């Protein structure tokens, strides 16, 4: 999959990571090569441009860490940006509580809609659903036969309806599902060679007749830019919810997969990786990026270094704590750790005894954490380490910078002062051992109740 692109990028990285130091010229040369490799993979020009710009900007401002060479740092940034190019987090099929749910597949001719219909039905059945496939490609009798053959192979019913009006067949298909107790309907539609008015009009009419929970655009990974253009026209005219990228098992260049999210704004939900009926899987942007960059080992190394970095920060904070001089930066660090671990609510759930206190566990507004972070981030380095310098006019500036009121800033500073006092007392009492996981003494938490 994406073999060419993968080989090219790996070559570039080998060059980069082999060097102990990176000059700006090294970075520039690597960026030029990455740009070329992406263009050759048929990634959309604009997408390439902003991708390279983003990587370059981060690479220039990147912190140099002891555990990674500059080259490895750059590779880490490329991985990160490529993951977000592919959609960032995993997108899921979202369906309503209505019965039956309706999923409609659209796409250009030969993109793999009918096959995807069977694969999706198969996947959903594995999740305990009872699918019905509806054949709305009335232009080629062979298309209906094809879906019926898939249905027989999978032992999943197919509704073929009567007449030649796909809108009517789709609507009747939904009724059929109700009558036969099927809880999810998958509508296969006709594709055309090019996106045209007629095709989009028909898709729009089927859509308004059956009101699908999800419209999925099937995009052939082998076709590159054309498919992405078609998808973006479709997004404007008919609108869809997500992409199923097909034929990823072939020697696709990668352009379609890498461009479609940026160009259409719609996430890739599924990847089809073969002709067999079980060759459909949820799409994971992070795994795909790693695969393209072909770098299991390097990735592990980078992730490890990241962890050490966090550990280092925690140890440093603990050191300061022991001396009793907690800074606002430490505070921010604690907040970030908490967020990373899934937020306060999930953290509280993990605490011993939390189960017994059901209902007593306070509802914490996670947005408060963001607000506190915003306030601290609006402070200068000096203000963070010596909050006592924060006078009235500084408070106003910080409040404006963070988009909060001066009252909020005052509250945070007050809570921080109290916390610091507590820490000092705690230290005097001979505490310091048995510190909480986050460097704060047990029972002490950041001031999220401000
Ligand atoms: N290798 C591979 N082949 C696929 C995949 N998905 C579909 N195909 C093949 O692509 C061809 C077209 O698939 P169809 O499902 O008929 O495509 P379609 O979009 O329904 O086509 P029309 O109905 O003509 O618009 C078939 O030969 C499929 O076997 C895939 O993920 N991998
Ligand atoms: Mg078809």
Widest beta sheet: strand line-up: 3-2-4-1-5-6-7-8
Query: Could you give the distance between the termini?
Result: 51 Å
CATH topology of the largest domain: Rossmann fold
- CATH top level of the largest domain? Alpha Beta
SSE-based structural type? alpha/beta
Total separate domains = 3
What's the helix count? 18
Cα radius of gyration in angstroms: 27 Å
Percentage of residues in DSSP E strands: 5-15%
Largest sheet: 8 strands, mixed
User: In one word, what is the shape?
Assistant: elongated
Q: Give a count of the beta strands, DSSP E runs of length 2 or more.
A: 8
Going by CATH, what is the homologous superfamily of the largest domain?
Answer: P-loop containing nucleotide triphosphate hydrolases
Mean pLDDT: 81
Any ligands, ions or cofactors bound here, and which? guanosine-5'-triphosphate, magnesium ion
- Corresponding CATH architecture of the largest domain: 3-Layer(aba) Sandwich
Q: How are helices and strands ordered from N to C? A: HHHHEHEHEHEHEHEHEEHHHHHHHH
